């Protein structure tokens, strides 16, 4: 009997208790899960391409950077985490994400596309501009180098800066406290806006709209522009449709024109694309804004036809 009790005691002593996983092991599992989730997010931001979706991808309204790779390619494996991190950095920048997209295609499987674009080695990165011929990316293969390359591509549709309105904006701002003077400046701005064509009318009318809102602000024009600059900056960082983000980028530039010294003629500024017949107002109203805020090492190459040793 004593032997039986002793054996039972030994067996129970070695049965792991519920919830008895060591704290260190739990932490290790948690960290691994976090790393896996982060890796999945990064991977999902690079669009996998095949023959069926390749054409629509490169013919979109954005610049497309495409990596041609092969599963057996060692340099491709080395580039993969860099490419994924680059796609993540693009997704975090409102202006970049409007103008740049990142993809990858297995050139070993999609041989016809690889041959069409003269892919002789892996990895090869091609830049497909909007409605233009592709070119090969030949700079360093680091996240920093990729970001520097696409920064110059991220310019939204532009127009020549309306120098006359910059002058009026600054005159309006400097007349803070003199309502009669500000109304007179706004009247001139409104009359001037009628003489601009469609390509510049969006911006011209937005100058006037900002003046109207500033006059209606109980705290005065300067208080309005301070608060508006902060609000617009906050909204730009939220996930809004591309068209709204373009409008906010324009709005930020115009708000800045009231608050800073007048720039020299010829400086470029972003302008949202507006279909004919759309209303002139090109900003988010207060309710829409509130809803939005609430939601809110260099690699080498390997020959394309060569198997990895």
Characterize this entry briefly.
The chain is α/β, with parallel strands linked by helices and 309 residues long. It is 55% helix and 11% strand.
Highlighted features:
two-stranded antiparallel sheet; alpha/beta; 309 residues; 11% strand; single chain; 2 domains; Endoplasmic reticulum protein erp29; Glutaredoxin
Description:
It comes from Pyramimonas obovata. Its EC number is 5.3.4.1. One of its GO terms (biological process) is protein folding. With 309 residues, this protein is an alpha/beta fold. The protein folds into two domains: 114 residues, Glutaredoxin; 137 residues, Endoplasmic reticulum resident protein 29, C-terminal domain (Endoplasmic reticulum protein erp29), CATH 1.20.1150. It is built from 13 helices and nine strands. The strands form three sheets. A five-stranded mixed β-sheet has the order 1-3-2-5-6, with helices on both faces. Helix 10 packs across helix 12. The radius of gyration is 28 Å and the shape is elongated. About 14% of the residues have low confidence.
Question: How many structural domains are formed by the residues?
Answer: 2
Q: What is the strand content?
A: 5-15%
Helix tally equals 13
Coarse structural class: alpha/beta
Anisotropy-based shape: elongated
- Total strands: 9
Assigned CATH superfamily of the largest domain:
Endoplasmic reticulum resident protein 29, C-terminal domain
Indicate the CATH architecture of the largest domain.
Up-down Bundle
Element-level helix/strand string: HHEHEHHEHEEEHEHHHHHEHE
Q: What is the top-level CATH class of the largest domain?
A: Mainly Alpha
What value does the average pLDDT take? Answer: 77
Stated plainly, the CATH topology of the largest domain is called Endoplasmic reticulum protein erp29
